[in-house]
Design a protein that fits this description.
about 180 residues, mainly alpha, 2 domains, two-stranded antiparallel sheet, 2 strands
Length: about 180
């Protein structure tokens, strides 16, 4: 299926922005900014998700996007006005504005850092009562249920993919021990 021109254009812009941000971070490191100055504040009051079993092969558009639509659409929408924190979680904008994009509140941190939920500012904002900056999301409402937080965590840990790869080529394809191996 061909990629619509507007989506392709957004991806090109997002890729260019990511390259610019990464070069800026590298420049800061090259200038010898002390590690203490680069260290981030410690969040506190984070929900314990250890009892939530990991969910394999999360699909962004059928499992994560509905969470944004139900829990975040009051403030993070782009329908004629500027969304809160310049983050639109409309279906056509959300993935592009989340993955490897610096947060507005803490520009040194990415909203979503693929493979690293704990380092992702978005995850901290939905998982911790006192994130590095601002307050827990959704603001003024009940926290996102633990099962949904765990889905977001697992999606980030799995690489924050926009599209789930076919099983044959995806991370989950591991034959059971001793199955499918020729006898010797």
């Amino acid at each position: 299926m061909p990629i619509p021109a507007i989506t392709l254009s957004r991806r090109v812009h997002a890729t260019a922005l990511r390259a610019f941000v990464h070069s800026g971070v590298i420049a800061l490191l090259a200038l010898g900014v002390p590690k203490a100055a680069q260290a981030q504040a410690q969040a506190s009051g984070c929900s314990d998700l250890s009892a939530q079993a990991p969910t394999p092969r999360i699909d962004y558009y059928t499992q994560i996007q509905p969470i944004w639509e139900i829990r975040c659409s009051n403030c993070h929408v782009n329908f004629g006005s500027s969304p809160s924190a310049d983050l639109s979680l409309n279906e056509e904008d959300s993935w592009i504005q989340l993955v490897e994009i610096p947060s507005v509140q803490v520009p040194a941190r990415q909203r979503v850092q693929p493979g690293q939920a704990v380092a992702s500012y978005l995850f901290e904002k939905i998982n911790c009562d006192l994130p590095e900056a601002g307050e827990r999301m959704p603001r003024g409402r009940m926290p996102i249920p633990l099962a949904e937080q765990a889905l977001i965590r697992d999606w980030i840990q799995q690489g924050a993919r926009e599209f789930t790869p076919p099983l044959l080529f995806g991370d989950g394809f591991e034959p059971a021990a001793g199955v499918g191996r020729p006898a010797r």
